[in-house]
Amino acid sequence: MRGNQQVLPxxxxxxxxxxxxxxxxxxxYKQVIVDYLDELDPDAEILGAVNTVVNQNGKWKxxxxxxxxxxRSIVDRYxxxxxxxxxxLLLGAGGGAARGIYRALGxxxxxxxxxxxxxxxxxxxxxxxRFGNVQTSVLSYPEAELKLAEYxxxxxxxxxxxxxxxxKQIISLTNLRxxxxxxxxxxxxxxxxxxxxxxxxxxxxxxxxxxxxLYQGQLAFEKWTGKNLDVTHLVDKLENKLRGV
Length: 245
Prior knowledge:
It catalyses: shikimate + NADP(+) = 3-dehydroshikimate + NADPH + H(+). Strands 7-6-5-8-9-10 form a six-stranded parallel beta sheet, with helices on both faces. The protein has about 240 residues and is of the alpha/beta class. The mean pLDDT is about 90. The relative contact order is 0.13. The chain has helices at about 10-15, 40-45, 65-75, 95-105, 120-125, 140-145, 195-200, 210-225, 230-245; strands spanning about 20-25, 40, 50-55, 60-65, 85-90, 110-115, 140, 155, 180-185, 205. α3 packs across α8.
């Protein structure tokens, strides 16, 4: 759902008059849509954002599938990565994706999720979303660069590196250790400058952002229909399409 926020009430009215199972919501509506819903999933209520709306017997219920969609995508590619010994660095704290990913990774009971952001105060806003006993430190980007060798997974959650600013990179990977997985939720371009840099580090692995897009869509489809949709075979197909292959 895109467009002018002033037309949102009339769009919602039209949707409620139709016999549809639900719809997806994107920026800048993930927070304002909450005011038009009858009910929120507990995680969506905590996150304060919704990207999936489901019609349940005439009542609209809001969910956030970004975080769980991200987790599904990373587990599909690296099934042994997330465990009680895993240390994660989250880059960026300003968007809804960062909030959802932070909470969803915590639900996987990883050991540590540090948050790096230009503004530490903004990063601290994520701390109330912490799940369980996950440890979290708030860092500046220069501090994160110095500590980079401590992490098993680095997740870039901002729009840095997105078209047309493809020459941008949020941090230097000079201190990246081998075997670390570097993940970027940007998928236009499919190979961001950050991922290209990571691929040059011997032993490091990369994770593309389009997989998160597919898996959050899978979750939305499940909530609308009650049916499981296997998207595993679509990950490579979408990557090839984005590469122009």
